[in-house]
Design a protein that fits this description.
Distance between the termini: 147 Å
Helix content: 55-70%
Mean pLDDT: 76
Number of domains: 3
Low-confidence stretches: 11-86, 277-291, 427-431
Number of strands: 0
Shape: globular
Largest sheet: none
Radius of gyration: 35 Å
Amino acid sequence: MICGRRLIRKALFQRRPPCCYYTGYPASSVSRSLHTTAATEAHAVGIPSASTPLSATRIGEGVGSGKGKEREVEGLYPVAITPAVTTYPPPHVAHYKPIAPLTPARLMKVYAELSKARLTTLMVLTAMSGVALSPLPATVPVLLATAIGTTLCSASTNTLNQLAESTFDAQMTRTRNRPLVRKIITPLHAAGFATVTGLAGPAILLAFTNSLTAGLGAFNIFLYAGVYTPLKRISVVNTWVGAVVGGIPPLMGWAACGNHLFSSAHPIQYFPPLFLSDITSSPLLSASTTQIAETIDNPLSALALFLLLFSWQFPHFDALSHMVRTSYAQGGYRMLSVINPSKNALVAVRHSVALIGICSVLTPLAGLTTWTFAVTSLVPNALLLRSALKFWKNTTDKNARKLFHDSLWWLPVVLGLMMFHKTGISWLEWIGWEESHRKEEEEPVTVLKVET
């Protein structure tokens, strides 16, 4: 009985061998749960389990009441003498992955990640839609300058955003692989990239387009990096500020062609359907090729472009934020999808309804498109509204993903329809069919007289 107590005391309180200190466990008072975990991992690599009672593990020879016999004690977990605690060897040098050299090709890839290439591409496409919908023609230098300037402004904006949020990005699964989190480049390097692109973007827009377009680009950088980014951790209003940022690129494309955002010489012009043009009074005008000039100085046109992109971002972003709400909660962001998911879905429904009014009333009334667009746009708007209502009734990740995917195809489809139904454009004439058909009708018919 005395030998058994000595054996228990010796097994529990003797010093560990030096090979055990790198495991990270304290030298004494090792909990049973820790050894149980270590034993589980030891069993996986074929080492005798530490969780096996001493009745199944030989402590040593020559210990016990009988000479040459093995003493077995029930219910004890060996601490210092079990090989299970040696299952955490120091990592070999070969296990470390060497850092790849920062070659020019890899540096371009890092710059693309800092710029959020997909988001930047979307910004450029929406800016180009403003150019395409302009009633004024755009030259090749204006097109290239608008695309390059918008790209640089967006790159600076997104880089500044990651610089401000790198410590919080490390806490979220969705963003922990960003370059600044992984220490691929230094914050000073990223700040230099943001500064160069932030100065070059507005400078290119100023040199090749006009001061209004350059001012919009610079203002968007400030609004996103200086207002929206810090507001994300303060109030849910950040989503509305971010929607304003997304609505500015089409205004940049609109202004790059020489259009006005605010009426300078004429009152606001309205373009009702043709069947109402005879019963309405000035300044109501019917949309036709002879009234394209009024669209240039009509603030309703710019307002329609802005509101279209502003309202679209709510079903798009509200669905996305619902899917990643866990990451936002980990990072400490004040998002409506985290605080009130039901209201977040309701906001998506409201703006889906607003898109119907913008497409079917405001856009053709401003003279951007013909009134045919009011009818053709109902199909994509109805599909988007259906997904938003389904998401509102049942706020699940599945319904949020469906709404998010619908918002992705909705934008290019509606912008394409706007370009197809653009005021003053006859696509039959553009492809040459209408002109050739008119010539055939106008050709004189030669009558041959046959003398008898």
